[in-house]
Amino acid sequence: MLSFPAYCFIYFLGIGGIGMSALARLLAAQGYTIVGYDKAASPLVTQLQNAGMFIHFTDSVTAIPSVIRQHPTKTLIIYTPAIPSDSPILNYLRGSGYTMLSRAEALGSIVNHLPTVAIAGTHGKTTASAILAHMLYESTLAMLAFVGGIMHRYNSNIIYNHTLNQVQVVITEADEFNKSFLQLTPSHSIVTSIDPDHLDTYATVATLQENFKQFIKQSKQTVLVHAKAANQLQLTTHGYSPLLTYGLNNAVIQADNIRIAARQSVFDYIGDGVTIKEIILPLPGSYNIENALAAITMGLTLGLTEAHVRASIASFPGMQRRFDYIARNEKFVLIDDYAHHPAEIAALLSTVRHIYPNGCITAIFQPHLFSRTADFYEAFGTTLSIADQVLLLPIYPAREVAVPAISSQLIYDCLSCKTKILVEDGKLLTILPSYMRQHAYHVVVTIGAGDIGTMVPAIAAVLAQQLLQ
């Protein structure tokens, strides 16, 4: 299996992204020489370097490795849309005869000729993808999965259980940002949610919904849609692939007899003619039960047995930054989560409140993107106020240029929790101890899609020093 047989070298612009790094790992496994650029080092980039990939951090034409400059006809360029349009490297390569593909185009080229399950949604797609990927990895079906996060046990965002030339089914996330998911023509698809997001791409909710409808139309076989999303899109089975809905209620696929604890959820799967009782999912939260419903339904569609579903769900190892327990002791709990949309934060903090009704919940939130903050600052204020205390960090810009009128102050002004703190850049570890003294049990939740995940070890150390001595 060679995805791009005309090329020997592949140069990734933005190689450190979760989707780009997965492609780099796959193509390295196929024998290509992988070279990459990213704006900064990260733990994920270090993993790629340790795997033998050369990566540089300067956006300059002179920094382009000689092997790339010397072989323009044998080099394929794969770039992320997060690369600025005025990037010197990007513009040099565009003007120098190189073949260039966006990440979405490259992914489509790799998977569209294979039986594929594409999982889309403004939230939930990573967990649903990971659960399904783990279920299939544990089966005899030859599978390949691209997941938008790092899975515990596998320590990777790409997994496969046979040699790559034997792949029978591919699992991939289908990202709605920049309309990337429209590059896919999957065999089966899942839509987990369509709450408004990426309005910098779509401008209106109606346009976002029309693009999700187009994604569904491109699916060739089974389409599985969360009941709320199906209602928002006014979807029926008419004019689309065979369509099933799922959700906690008012859906074809439902959960019953639900019990949620600190480290797991237990439920009965009620499907279309199928019931699987007492499924143990090692993740808390009703929203994670819904993600599991989607994964289970697709697993059954692909031929997994009920017994296999039950056993593989129970052994799901979890993921980094998805209700990820970093510390848990007699004085405090530290949970790290990637939530970056108001609906995700509401689901996360409501689950935390359910599990720890008597704990003092402190949310440490780093807003992601100026555009998203401008669109949802009121909703962020409402959902974060589920916590008792909120420590609000500066906005993480990611691909965006700073907008002076948009700051974390907008969210701060909408908070109604007991304690709220606007944290200056770089001051979190200094001020954190002063908010960790007055309560018997602390539940600290780090939240955001930026670089807050890199701060978590230091936060854990501060909490341990303050509360365990």
UniProtKB/TrEMBL annotation:
Start and end residues of each Mur ligase N-terminal catalytic domain: 10-113
Enzyme class: ligase
MF-aspect GO terms: ATP binding; UDP-N-acetylmuramate-L-alanine ligase activity
Keywords, alphabetical: ATP-binding, Cell cycle, Cell division, Cell shape, Cell wall biogenesis/degradation, Ligase, Membrane, Nucleotide-binding, Peptidoglycan synthesis, Transmembrane, Transmembrane helix
Coiled coil regions, renumbered to chain: none
Keyword Cell membrane: no
Single GO BP term: cell wall organization
Protein name, entry field: UDP-N-acetylmuramate--L-alanine ligase
Source organism (scientific name): Candidatus Cardinium hertigii
Phylogenetic classification of the source organism: Bacteria, Pseudomonadati, Bacteroidota, Cytophagia, Cytophagales
